[in-house]
Amino acid sequence: MKARVTVMLKDGVLDPQGEAVRHALGALGFSGVTGVRQGKVIELDLAPGTERDEVERMCEALLANTVIERYEIEMG
Amino acid sequence: MKARVTVMLKDGVLDPQGEAVRHALGALGFSGVTGVRQGKVIELDLAPGTERDEVERMCEALLANTVIERYEIEMG
């Protein structure tokens, strides 16, 4: 089975990487882009029957820095 | 309006970052993780009425390296 974890910086935390992308898009002529936030996505192949709880523990332990990042889990 | 772009390495392209995460999860006792792929997610705030086509052009021009990466666009 698979799970997808999306990790984004929390609102209010400066995102210089996203800001750099926004600036570069503007320089390329994409003028309608008013904001960019960049995060990471982690696709996990899991043993059958793995619970969402266990993926949550992975996020808390390693995948996200919960001081500055939030995460979403999609099981599927 | 918003769009979310997910960029992953194509299948067959080595993903050392994902492999490092898999190894670290194993070391932390999460033994059921058989594979990990890591990618990036880019959330765009767009001017109202922006077409999916334009986001696709952003991906081709800047957001993804289409030689080794594939991308998915979700408008919403």
Give the topology.
The structure is a homodimer of 76-residue chains.
Chain A: E1 2-9, H1 16-27, E2 33-46, H2 52-63, E3 69-75
Antiparallel strand pairs in A: 1-2, 1-3
What does this structure look like?
The structure is a homodimer of 76-residue chains. Chain A is α+β, with helices and mostly antiparallel strands. Chain A has one domain: Mth169, Chain: A (2-Layer Sandwich). Chain A has helices at residues 16-27, 52-63, and strands spanning 2-9, 33-46, 69-75. In chain A, strands 2-1-3 form a 3-stranded antiparallel beta sheet. The longest helix of chain A has 12 residues, at 16-27. The A-B interface holds A 6, 8, 18, 21, 24-25, 28, 30-47, 50, 54, 57-58, 61-63 and B 6, 8, 18, 21, 24-25, 28, 30-47, 50, 54, 57-58, 61-63.
CATH homologous superfamily title of chain A: Phosphoribosylformylglycinamidine synthase subunit PurS
Strand content of chain A: 35-45%
- For the largest interface in this structure, which chains are involved and how many residues does each contribute? A-B, 32 and 32 residues
Largest β-sheet summary of chain A: 3 strands, antiparallel
CATH third-level topology of chain A: Mth169, Chain: A
EC number (chains A, B): 6.3.5.3
Pfam family, one (chains A, B): PurS
Pathway (chains A, B): Purine metabolism; IMP biosynthesis via de novo pathway; 5-amino-1-(5-phospho-D-ribosyl)imidazole from N(2)-formyl-N(1)-(5-phospho-D-ribosyl)glycinamide: step 1/2
Enzyme class (chains A, B): ligase
